[in-house]
Amino acid sequence: MSRLIxxxxxxxxxxxxxxxxxxxxxxxxxxxxxxxxxxxxxxxMMHAGVHDIALFIRRKYRxxxxxxxxxxxxxxxxxxxxxxxxxxxxNDPTDASRGDLQHVHNNLxxxxxxxxxxxxxxxxxxxxxxxxxxxxxxxxxxxxDVTLVYKPIxxxxxxxxxxxxxxxxxxxxxxxxxxxxxxxxxxxxxxxxDKSLYLxxxxxxxxHQDNHFFRDAIQKNPSGLRIYAYRYEGYHAVINSIESxxxxxxxxxxxxxxxxxxQNQPVHTKIKYEAPTRYTYSAEVDHSLVANGCTIxxxxxxxxxxxxxxxxxxxxxxxxxxMQKCVxxxxxxxxxxxxxxDVQLSADRTLIGDSRVPYVIAKNSxx
Length: 367
Prior knowledge:
2 domains; five-stranded parallel sheet; glycogen biosynthesis; Spore Coat Polysaccharide Biosynthesis Protein SpsA, Chain A; single chain
């Protein structure tokens, strides 16, 4: 949909996944055996026909840049428009902007040159399959200044504690934005807003020395904006801790959960041409998600294996997440563990974590 401009804002996303975010930002964390967290946001925008997307990043983005490239998997490698990776520029001595407002202020050319007239703004910590075209239609129908996307959560979990909540009246208008823990309408950090109004609000915030667009322009709402809420009912997972990452990853081993995330519109990611997984005569695999390029000679159960993992003969992997190109040596035992990329576990080693709080090993470790 050429009328929409995508903004993926990572500025306020904290790197809370411990060892998994030592060397990368949260948006680049691998998920579901072959994807990165940002793939789900990019794919949602792609399916809505969004051809101009700005990515606001500030720190630890080398891994993310390597993954995104020119944006080809999401049809963003274009002569006009496409993917714009926009770190903030601090070279202007007159610049008074701060926080995520700095990204907009120092990259106004992106917004002025884009043909789209409506902003769809999102993050990457809320994995979902929101139909952005439907959100846009709802936004026009309500004649809203801002439309926020939310999901009613019946069973609140620990990962929902830091999430913003919405109070909504019968017409769908937002009457309150807060973080009171007993409210179940979780804001998905996604909103739709007219481009000219968005830029006006950015200028207003900068003039008043604010630094957080959502909090200062929308939540506080000093301009009296007409704010409506779009109710989303599909797949949703919040990834804001090791515990939530592990729990929501393992839930994908349930066929119903997996289909809810992947069955309808495909999720696109960086293409890697690798051979199919090879299973030797001694391999035993049960209830697991295994990407291509692996070699399995041991036992794997209730686990997620990313591309290129080697599980040698006699090794046992259970209830674990093993990322790209890890090697599990002969006779090694891995249970309730998350291994980041390129970890090598020597023969006959044993790693056992807690079923609720897994043992995490940082990338490139040799044990």
